[in-house]
Amino acid sequence: MRKKYAAGNWKMNKTFNEGQILFSEVTNMVKDELVNPNVKVVMAVPAPYLSSFSKLINTDKVSIAAQNCHPKESGAYTGEVSVGMLKSVGVEYVIIGHSERREYFGETDEFIAAKVDALLAGGLTPIFCCGETLAQREAGIHFDFVKGQFTNALFHLDADALQKVVIAYEPIWAIGTGVTASSEQAQEMHKVLRDHLASKYGQEVADNISILYGGSVGAGNAKELFAMPDVDGGLVGGASLKSRDFTEIAKSFPA
Ligand code: 13P
Q: What is the pLDDT of residue 112?
């Protein structure tokens, strides 16, 4: 059975002290309360906190993630953080291709593909984000657009490598807006994406890949979303900043 994920993306929020409290609270609650052995809780915290917070993890149900990385091993890339650096402080997962990085920092599919390669070469798990704008959905080109993001950033991988990637479908119109995709809309896109993977890699490979939904996931709608057959969890922004809400989200998978 493919793995289920409750992944929190803190984005650029929380001071060190606030973050330390939040991270410890989630870790302790998850350790005590999360009983489904197939669920992994991942927290993507700001880069300066990674080294310190990774030491707070007291259960293998929790992993720490970075929100970005640079594809080069080292060198003159002021302000950037390499995969090797992240690995050396206990990071296991890295979010890449988030729509905020694509939009505000001009990241292209090609650059994101290079990050995928660097992460897999370093033994870390990419959480690859994709998703359409409202205008693209209204124009009816959303399926083709997101399939294109896959093709451009992932389809150079062989089947073994592809199966090490976690996907997060995050429709841009649902991020931070309080407007979540309905569970039917999420399921519909996830199925299209899984079929797209199957068309190149075969059904068995496609069935092994976790596809998370992101966009206004909260404690109130996670159960319905996670009940969908092709929705393997959530990438959670705002609600991951509240320890009780995020823990409840992690407990929202069908038994
Ligand atoms: P929200 O849950 O705040 O909508 O953010 C989603 C997101 O962008 C997670 O990466």
A: 98
Residue type, 85: M
Give yes or no: 98 in active site: yes
Pair 1, 207: CB distance under 8 Å: no
Structure tokens at 190: 């996830």
The yes-or-no answer on residue 103 being catalytic is no
Mean pLDDT of the chain: 97
What domains are there in the chain, each with its CATH number? Answer: 4-250 (3.20.20.70)
Q: Ligand 1: which residue has its CA nearest to atom 2?
A: 237
Which of 175, 180, 241 to mutate to test ligand 1, by most ligand atoms within 8 A of the CB atom?
175
Ligand 1 neighbours by CB, cut-off 6 Å: 9, 98, 170, 175-176, 214-217, 235-239
Q: Which residues contact 60 (CB under 8 A, 6 or more apart)?
A: none
Query: What is the pLDDT at residue 94?
Result: 99
User: Which residue type occupies 212?
Assistant: L
Q: How confident is the model over 89-103, as pLDDT tens digits?
A: 999 999 999 999 999
CA–CA dist 236, 149 (Å, integer): 21
CA 90 to chain centre: 17
